Amino acid sequence: MGSSPNSKPKIVRGSAGYVLEDVPHLSDYIPELPAYSNPLQDHPAYSVVKQYFVHIDDSVPQKIIANKDSPRGTHFRRAGPRQRVYFEPDEVQAAIVTCGGLCPGLNTVIRELVCGLYHMYGVKKILGISGGYKGFYAHNTIPLTPKTVNDIHKRGGTILGSSRGGHDTTKIVDSIQDRGINQVYIIGGDGTQRGAYRIFEEIRKRGLKVAVVGIPKTIDNDIPVIDKSFGFDTAVEEAQRAINAAHVEAESVENGIGVVKLMGRYSGFIAMYATLASRDVDCCLIPETPFYLEGPGGLFEFAEKRLKENGHMVIVIAEGAGQELVSESIQAMQKQDASGNKLLQDVGLWISQKLKDYFANQKTMGITLKYIDPTYMIRAVPSNASDNVYCTLLAQSAVHGAMAGYTGFTSGLVHGRQTYIPFNRITEGQNTVVITDRMWARLLSSTNQPSFLMAKTVIEEKKEEEEEEEEEAAAASNQ
């Protein structure tokens, strides 16, 4: 995949502990780069807006909760149009690529990138790269115009196609250089953004006037720094349909159990928010918090109790939850897909079978269990109204940044404001549910499920105390 990024972060420090984690600019490595007046100043739709252009020093704080003695802390450059641009519309040859798995809103982002470039800045040469990163050197392209993308936001998926892996930095940059592409818009998750970072580094090393811009895409909402990923609201909304179906099935029979498996390889945000929104869920299991099945405080005991109380129950489980329980071998745990993601066992089927086996062995009550996996139905739907607006803002911010000469950044929302975030911050880790946070406490309060970790800790501590008492008694009898 090429060499790892090695550039130093661009840090600007100010008074009172102010830190700006700035993004690279083409002028950082291309001397005497000409600048031009932004054509938006004469655009009839934008010229009437007072203070439409973003001030050069505007920034957005990463943390907004502070006390009187707090330093100002880390900030990111505010997104938006600048008074000066570093590309003339006629010279721009833009390329758009989508990578990784499907997500609601991909077509909306593509549409708004094309329309933003075309209508705001007068850019006419826009290419779509087919089939993910490998499309760069397979020479698969689709010409894009506002007419060709006019109604694609009403469809799920991506008109450009997508794939995992296939990244070769040198071959991709060779293709970019050979085709005269000077703006690259890369839509994808953390692995895709790491690839974008390598492309940016290679372009900078060659001294090319090419802006590389990322738009973060992960339906799991596991990209750090940003408030949320596009498609997440749609995923939660669609997940509720599956939960509602499971609830209807469960309450329509005696001792009915509905099990719904939702997306969330490493982060349980979809499961958590869908559970909170639904209010029909009795137990939510996510990767961030371990759970166990047998014994006091375990899932089996809780399920039996809930069925006796209500006559039915609904369990929501994220795909990455309980993998240490379901994996039968270390070898199974270490298999990966083309993007380097760990291949997971189907925890939904596994837990469904475990519940069936438990109640069959107990012979105290018969159950009827229905298992629903809506994964691909959720991924494939068009984005809802909220996500459509968000996709528009992300795409337009990306276009403004590229035209202003910024590069090596991801367009993202931080505390409700559009920002430009350096690639290294987006790829440094994963956003996960903090189980010591108030939101998880709200979920536990909503479902009244046990906090399995706490219950297990109590059991283990009690067992240790009993063992210590036994040892003390044995020592005393030996004296």
TrEMBL record:
Annotated residues for binding of substrate = T218, I219, D220, M263, G264, R265, E319, Y376, M377, I378, R379
InterPro entries in the cross-refs: ATP_PFK (IPR022953), PFKA (IPR050929), Phosphofructokinase_dom (IPR000023), PKF_sf (IPR035966), PyroP-dep_PFK_TP0108 (IPR012004)
The terms describing its cellular component in GO are: cytosol
The pathway to which it is assigned is: Carbohydrate degradation; glycolysis; D-glyceraldehyde 3-phosphate and glycerone phosphate from D-glucose: step 3/4
What cofactors are annotated for this protein? Mg(2+)
Q: Which residues bind ATP?
A: G101, R164, G165, G189, D190, G191, T192
So what does this thing catalyse? Answer: beta-D-fructose 6-phosphate + ATP = beta-D-fructose 1,6-bisphosphate + ADP + H(+)
Subcellular location, record wording: Cytoplasm
Q: Where does Mg(2+) bind?
A: D190
A GO BP entry is:
fructose 6-phosphate metabolic process
Q: Where is this site: Important for substrate specificity?
A: G191
Which intervals hold domain Phosphofructokinase?
Answer: 94-400
Stated EC number for the protein is 2.7.1.11
Going by the record, the broad EC class of this enzyme is transferase
Question: Where does this protein chiefly localize?
Answer: cytoplasm
Please summarize the record's notes on activators and inhibitors of this protein: Allosterically activated by AMP.
According to its UniProt record, which residues of this chain constitute the active site?
D220 (proton acceptor)
| One of the record's GO molecular function terms | ATP binding
Which UniProt keywords are listed? Allosteric enzyme, ATP-binding, Cytoplasm, Glycolysis, Kinase, Magnesium, Metal-binding, Nucleotide-binding, Transferase
Q: Does the keyword Cell division apply?
A: no
Q: What is the role of the protein in this entry?
A: Catalyzes the phosphorylation of D-fructose 6-phosphate to fructose 1,6-bisphosphate by ATP, the first committing step of glycolysis.
Family of this protein: Belongs to the phosphofructokinase type A (PFKA) family. PPi-dependent PFK group II subfamily. Atypical ATP-dependent clade 'X' sub-subfamily.
Subunit relationships: Homotetramer.
For this entry, the protein name equals ATP-dependent 6-phosphofructokinase
